[in-house]
Design a protein that fits this description.
It is a single chain. This protein has helices at residues 15-22, 40-44, 48-61, 88-91, 127-141, 168-173; strands at 5-9, 66-71, 74-83, 110-118, 146-149, 177-181, 187-192. With 193 residues, it is of the alpha+beta class. The protein has one domain: Gcn5-related N-acetyltransferase (GNAT) (Aminopeptidase). The longest helix is centred in the C-terminal third of the chain and has 15 residues, at 127-141. The protein is globular and about 35 Å long.
Length: 193
């Protein structure tokens, strides 16, 4: 396990590092971290290359849509963190992540930690804790008043790519509290900043 982790906002000059973390396939089935960022109907029409292009344009437009984690100079991890309003997949009435108050979906001060991704050799080492701390710090410094997450209680393996939403225990340890449970094992959690 690494001991010198650095967390940096994903700015246009770090795009190549994002590509390194996501690999040639775009991480989870060519998602390029667009799962919550695009409405489902729109996302399904796009191939992996088009999702990558969408995300590249989003990064170029700023502000940073998330943070990269580094082991020394080597990028290895990602967390998507930003305003809920940028995540239509989080705000639909049928999703487990839907806001408690519908107005939160447009409030620029209500943020979400929606996705994690790490290179496989770094998974299962507890590094999500440090990455989440970076996300909390970033959200606080950007003026967020609430930070929400909708993690999962259990995955089949600690190294499972299915933990892209994060582990409930990691959020609980960081001080997040459950505010709703719409599906067993997938609590909506919140941290007041």
């Amino acid at each position: 396990m690494t001991t010198a982790i650095a967390i940096r906002p994903l700015t246009p000059d770090l795009w190549a590092d994002f590509e390194t973390v996501f690999g040639p396939q775009g991480a989870c089935y060519g998602c390029w971290c667009t799962y919550f960022r695009l409405a489902a109907a729109e996302r399904k029409l796009l191939g992996s290359a088009e999702r990558k292009d969408f995300m590249h344009k989003r990064v170029d437009a700023g502000p940073p849509p998330g943070l990269l984690a580094y082991d020394g100079a080597a990028p290895f991890g990602w967390v998507q963190v930003g305003p809920r309003s940028e995540l239509p997949g989080w705000n639909t009435p049928r999703t487990v992540a839907r806001p408690l108050d519908p107005q939160d979906a447009e409030d620029p001060h209500v943020w979400a930690v929606s996705c994690f991704f790490m290179l496989s050799k770094y998974r299962g080492q507890g590094l999500s804790h440090a990455i989440l701390q970076g996300a909390i710090k970033h959200a606080r410094e950007a003026g967020a008043r609430l930070l929400e997450a909708c993690p999962m209680d259990h995955a089949k393996q600690a190294k499972s790519v299915g933990l892209y939403v994060g582990s409930t225990s990691v959020f609980r340890k960081a001080g997040f509290e459950e505010v709703a449970l719409r599906k067993a094992g997938r609590p909506l959690m919140r941290l007041a900043l």
